[in-house]
Design goal:
This protein is an alpha/beta fold. The chain has helices at 23-39, 59-62, 81-94, 97-109, 112-130, 171-174, 181-197, 206-215, 241-250, 271-285, 303-312, 327-333, 348-355, 368-372, 384-396, 398-412, 417-437; strands at residues 7-12, 46-52, 55-58, 144-147, 163-167, 200-203, 223-225, 257-262, 290-295, 316-320, 336-339, 360-363, 376-379. The radius of gyration is 22 Å and the shape is globular.
Length: 438
């Protein structure tokens, strides 16, 4: 402690402004909610502010909006965004849910959003050039800056303030074929910034920590492993078959027995092999009452998957984007989550499923083995026969499912956002103290 004074941390929170609820945004919101519980206590030594596209917002002021569905609000907005958000709120409150979701899906798939984001990024770049952050007197008050993603370094380079960066994975180095060129360029730019400023790192798993040591020239004592967690209030065992049946019907899942995948539909998630393994398993073992449910928004290089396969195989269901409140029922209703990803820096859907008592079939790569352990069945994500065998075992052996379900609940109990927040705050203090002595 600095002579009884409070620590002041500025957390870059531009992700809150993005409409999609990806893993990094979920990480940010859950961490902030846990921070808020700590900061709100009378004995807290922390003052945490959010940096949202040029606006600095105290965490307590953002408290009403710490929800993945409503995180966008009035902070960090361009002039044109405020009426658009008011219009969105009006439609959401006045239209039937089904109609609103269809319109929202249309908006997501048409080029409106990329066009508006391009305008916004250009405008923000002009603002930063006219008023760079290192000349902003507000920044001098902070003891530490936390970036939840290396790509979000923007103009923090010349501030002279200790920096901490969360690293979720190194797929841009390990699997460049799974990334767009722009994403690789931004990630590399972020890590160059980190090395130049002597930043410290949070790795969300031991696998990610090892990747940082193997692929980047970073001292071992500059990296701390702090695992993510899943929302225990949302993801839990449901004793409500009617709710589960209603969610199945909402997403056109016509059979009660199904295997679930959940991810953005893109090459890294290994969905093509997962589908092939499912079809091979059904051909070999005859599971007429079984469906494969592929849940998640469409990403890049996915048209072949979502079009041709959906037409040819009626037992493969593409749901599209899943509403946050429907996810627990979808997990609870599944025989297992199929998560044969070729690489995960953590694997949040696996943990969410485990908290619902749902076994996980997972790829033996990246962080998934350390996360799932005995709560599922592993397979080589490049071996279709192994994947098919795991699917057959889990769908045909009720005793195995029951045992793995119990193991999933036990394993999931070790993860908590409050514990993640406590470890993160302790590491904040460690980074600040190290900086003050250097």
């Amino acid at each position: 402690m600095k002579d009884g004074k409070r620590y002041r941390v500025l957390l870059e929170a531009g992700k809150l402004m993005e409409a999609d609820g990806d893993g990094v945004k979920r990480y940010l919101i859950e961490l902030l909610q846990a921070f808020d519980r700590v900061e709100n206590s009378s004995h807290s030594s922390w003052e945490i502010d959010l940096f949202i596209y040029g606006d600095i917002v105290p965490l307590h002021a953002y408290r009403p909006y710490l929800d993945i569905r409503i995180a966008q609000h009035r902070f960090g907005l361009m002039a044109y965004e405020k009426p658009l958000l008011r219009f969105k709120k009006y439609l959401q409150s006045s239209l039937p849910s089904g109609l609103y979701q269809r319109l929202a899906g249309l908006y997501r798939n048409l080029p409106f959003r990329p066009f508006l984001q391009l305008i916004k990024k250009g405008s923000k770049a002009v603002q930063r050039s006219l008023k760079p952050l290192h000349k902003d007197p507000r920044l001098a008050a902070y003891d530490l800056i936390h970036l939840p993603l290396p790509q979000h370094e923007d103009s923090f380079e010349r501030l002279g303030i200790p920096t901490l960066i969360t690293v979720h994975d190194l797929t841009h180095k390990l699997f460049q074929e799974f990334h767009q060129t722009r994403n690789i360029r931004l990630a590399e730019k972020g890590f160059r910034f980190a090395r130049k400023t002597g930043a410290h790192f949070i790795a969300v798993s031991e696998a990610t920590r090892q990747d940082l040591l193997n692929f980047l020239d970073i001292p071992e004592n500059w990296i701390k492993t702090i695992a993510e967690a899943a929302d225990k209030r949302l993801f839990k065992v449901l004793q409500d078959p009617d709710r589960i049946a209603a969610v199945r019907a909402r997403y056109n899942i016509t059979k009660t027995a199904y295997l679930l995948t959940l991810s953005t539909i893109e090459p890294r998630k290994n969905l093509k092999r997962t589908i092939t393994a499912f079809l091979r398993m059904k051909e070999k073992h005859e599971h007429p009452g079984l469906q494969l449910v592929i849940a998640g928004k469409v990403g890049w290089k996915s048209k072949e998957l979502t079009g041709r396969i959906a037409e040819q195989h009626p037992d493969i269901i593409f749901t599209g984007f899943i509403d946050e409140n429907d996810l627990p029922a979808l997990y609870n209703g599944a025989l297992a989550l199929c998560y044969f990803s070729t690489y995960e820096g953590f694997g949040l859907p696996a943990l969410e499923a485990m908290q619902c008592g749902t076994p996980v079939l997972y790829g033996q790569a990246g962080a998934l083995p350390e996360l799932v352990t005995e709560a599922g069945l592993a397979a080589d994500p490049y071996n279709i026969d192994e994947m098919a065998d795991a699917m057959h075992k889990i769908t045909s052996d009720e005793k195995l499912r029951s045992r793995l379900s119990q193991s999933a609940l036990e394993r999931a109990s070790f993860f908590s956002w409050d514990e993640t927040a406590r470890q993160t705050l302790a590491y904040y203090a460690d980074c600040i103290e190290k900086s003050s002595k250097s």
